[in-house]
Write a structure and sequence with these properties.
Length: 65
């Protein structure tokens, strides 16, 4: 299984936007800070495993969404 890295593209006080670094994929997710949760904006290549982190926020295993 392919493994893609996700990086923080934008954040505010409540949420962080992560995007996949693979151009052909384009997966984007929003991760909640205060309340753990994950919203998929663009599914991208959902057969790939996506990992990424920012500070204390880890999104390993985001493909469950
Ligand atoms: Zn990806």
């Amino acid at each position: 299984m392919a493994s893609h890295e996700m990086v923080c593209e934008a954040e505010n006080a409540h949420e962080v936007l992560f995007v996949c670094t693979d151009d052909a994929c384009g997966r984007r997710v929003v991760v909640g800070k205060a309340r753990p949760g994950l919203t998929v904006i663009d599914r991208g290549d959902f057969s790939a495993r996506h990992v990424g982190s920012l500070g204390g926020i880890s999104i390993e295993g985001v493909d469950v969404a």
